Amino acid sequence: MATVSSDELIASAEAVLHPRPVGGRLFGNVASTLVTEAGNLHSGVCIDTGSGTGFCAEHAAVAAMVTAREYRIAGIVAVWRDDGGALHVVPPCGRCREFIRQIDPGNLDTEVVLGRRHSLRLRELLPYHRWPSRPG
Questions:
Q1: Is the Cβ–Cβ distance between 84 and 122 less than 8 Å?
Q2: N or C: which end of the chain has fewer CB within 10 A?
Q3: For the ranges 6-10, 20-24, 45-49, which has the lowest average pLDDT?
Q4: The CATH number of the domain where 28 resides is what?
Q5: Cβ 83 vs Cβ 93: under 8 Å
Q6: Which residues in 26-51 are b (16+ Cβ under 10 Å) and which e?
Q7: Region 97-117: what's the mean pLDDT?
Q8: In which domain, by residue range, is 11 found?
């Protein structure tokens, strides 16, 4: 994945992890960092809203990337800290997996960090990504 290690991606995501309770909801309790094929880092945090209009940390990181006119993701990670203070790497939800895929078809080869020494390509986490072809 570009020139950024899994540990560097995790540390970058951890650096923007600053949970804040707001009206019974928690903002920023999951953070994500991605590295583009060009080697640029983009981060974001989740926003949980009562009306369902919130979004995941991966969505925020991808939005920052697209704002910078980039679309291909070499690697991505999301982190969460439990009540005991331990940092956990968390996999993207199904909505995020599909979102990443739809940003650019090449993102099926994105390395999704699942732990300090474990990652899989998005295509392995989203194996049934192809729509059937039209009958001819």
A1: no
A2: C
A3: 20-24
A4: 3.40.140.10
A5: no
A6: ebbbbbbbbbbbeeebbbbbbbbeee
A7: 96
A8: 6-125
16, with CB counted inside 10 A (0-12, 13-18, 19+), is middle
How far is C-alpha 125 from the chain's CA centre?
13
What is the average pLDDT across 70-99?
A: 96
- Please tell me the chain's helix, strand, coil percentages from 3-state DSSP, rounded to the nearest 5: 30, 30, 40
How far is 117 from 131, CA to CA, in rounded Å?
32
Closest CA to 47 of 66, 35, 31: 31
Do the beta carbons of residue 101 and residue 129 sit within 8 Å?
yes
Predicted local distance difference test score (pLDDT) of residue 23: 86
Report if residue 131 sits inside a domain.
no
pLDDT at site 37: 96
Beta strands in the chain (DSSP E): 20-22, 25-36, 41-47, 73-81, 87-89, 111-115, 118-121
